[in-house]
Amino acid sequence: MSDLKVDYQLLDSVERSLSRLLSEFQNIKAQTGSYDGAMGSGAVASAMDGFAGNWNDHRKDLIGSMQSLGEMVSQTRQQFQNTDSKLSSSLTEK
What we know:
The protein is an all-alpha fold. It contains three helices and no strands. Helix 1 packs antiparallel against helix 3.
């Protein structure tokens, strides 16, 4: 039987990375309409506005997914640490 090994540094790194990404995604501002004059074509400007609107919707979905994943990583790390502490205590008490 093999032992389960948990890489706490990796879990911490993933949690920090997700937190930074989440902050970046939450602070992205859609720039719809600000470049319309530079597009040179109403069709291009309209397509870019559509893209920005779709991106905004998908960004919100990504933010929700990143928040959920961050919570799962945090809870996983906490549960493994709690289990490690309990196992360590049970071994040292005897």
